[in-house]
Each structure stands twice: as structure tokens, then as C-alpha cells.
Amino acid sequence: MQIKSLWACIFNRHVKQTSDDTSILNRYWKQPRPSEFLSQHAQTIRAVVGNATAGADAKLIDALPKLEIVSSFSVGLDKIDLTKCKEKGIRVTNTPDVLTDDVADLAIGLMLAVLRRICECDKYVRRGEWKFGDFRLTSKFSGKRVGIIGLGRIGLAIAKRAEAFDCPIKVMDALGPSGVLINIGRGPHVDEPELVSALVEGRLGGAGLDVFEKEPEVPEQLFGLENVVLLPHVGSGTVETRKDMADLVIGNLEAHFANKPLLTPVV
């Protein structure tokens, strides 16, 4: 039996291919009149699929009286009203673990890119400046003290990788003008205006940022800073991991509607 589900945002091809046999998709993000769409289909929708940018807020949950489960294509649950889900007995799942390695790898990559000025070096060669002299000296990564905020799955994976570079792992402390901030978590976790000011004024040595406070908007002041590496929220953005995440999303839906234990339950 196919289940009618509401998809809150665009998903990759693998999610669509995997879900075609198990659910009838309602592409909510494509609807020019969301309220009208909900009034017509609310009584038949039993599942919502979202991600880190679009999920199920209280208004959407209240508009779907038959909703049974919200399956998130992300680890973060910022866009899901968990309190409302608990009140209504709605199950919630996410996609932990499968993206841990990719995000941790990227964090180390950003540390190396910022300290060794890899992006600057690339531009230096492309601009033909190498023929006029060597690139300026950079900063060593191996042995640097690494402070990690939040030793969850990803934090522990970063610590394990950093230890391979002989980096002592410490509780987070003030960074100072030689410090580097890496953010691969959530943009709002960092005071973005203060971060920009610290970088512009030289109070912070550099930053590697994969997430921002108001994505996809990025503070323009960062564009001209050579000691900053900017990425478009691609922490889990590999073919392998996105496939694994898609399998978890669909697997949780299949498990729920087959009255089996959820693979990665949150609520």
C-alpha cells in the first residue's frame, strides 16, 4: 500500500527513486498556494519528510490531522517542532551516524585549508605569481591544540582524526589572533556578527565555515578575507553519504507503516 507523504523540500534523485514504490509524493515546496494545497490534501497525508532547512513546524503539524511520522533527512532537528510532535504522538526520525565521517573529514580539511592557506596557494599558482617568488610561510597544523565544542558523534570523530595529527584536544577556550574557528555544525551556534568583526579586526586568526546564520546568505565582509575558507553547507555532501541518508529516511517510513521498530527514532 502506498502512503501519501508531504515532502517539505527538494531531495536528491536517490530519495525519489527509493520512495516511488512506498509513497505518493506531495511536493510541498512546489506549491504556489500552500494553504490551499493543505486544505485539499490534509486528510490524506500521513508522513512528512524534511531536512535541516524545511521540516514540520507547529502550524504544519496542526494542519495535518492524519500525520503519524516526520522523517528528517538530517541529524539536526531545528525545523521540527518536537514539543508539538510529542503532544500529538507523532513519531520523529533523523539520519545520525551515516554522515559522521564526512563531516569530521571536512572539519579537518577546513583546518588544514585555513592554516596552510591552501585556497590562497591555489590562487597564487593560477595567477602566475609563483614565478616571481615563493608563497609566504603558513602555519603548521600538526601539534596544534584543538578545542571542540560538543563531543557528540561528530565531535568525537573530529577528536580521533585530530589526534592522528598529534593535536592535543582541549576544552574550548579563547582563540586569540592566532586561533582558527571551524564551524561545521549550525550557523546560529556562532555569533556571526562578532565572528566577522573579530576576523576583520585581526582578533581571530582565521575561520573555516561550512554553515552560516541565514543560509544561503553569507556576510559580504568575509569574501575579501584570505584567511577564511567558505563552503556552501556540504558537510554530508558526498554521493555515498547522501544515499545512506536517503535509505534511512525511507527505511524509517517503511518501518513505521509496517508496525516495525524505527531505525533511528527521536520521538
UniProtKB/TrEMBL annotation:
Task: Specify the D-isomer specific 2-hydroxyacid dehydrogenase NAD-binding domain's residue ranges.
Answer: 171-235
Keywords in UniProt for this one?
NAD, Oxidoreductase
Quote the InterPro entries the UniProt record gives: D-isomer_2-hydroxyacid_DH, D-isomer_2_OHA_DH_cat_dom, D-isomer_DH_NAD-bd, NAD(P)-bd_dom_sf
Q: Does the keyword NAD apply?
A: yes
Q: Name one GO cellular component term.
A: cytosol
Please report the stretch or stretches of sequence annotated as the D-isomer specific 2-hydroxyacid dehydrogenase catalytic domain: 30-266
Keyword Zinc found: no
Q: Which GO terms describe its molecular function?
A: glyoxylate reductase (NADPH) activity; hydroxypyruvate reductase [NAD(P)H] activity; NAD binding
Please, which domain of life does this record's source organism belong to? Eukaryota
Q: A Pfam family name for this chain?
A: 2-Hacid_dh
The family note in this entry says: Belongs to the D-isomer specific 2-hydroxyacid dehydrogenase family.
Protein name as it appears in the record: Hydroxyphenylpyruvate reductase
Q: Which organism is it from?
A: Sesamum angolense
What lineage does UniProt assign to this protein's organism?
Eukaryota, Viridiplantae, Streptophyta, Embryophyta, Tracheophyta
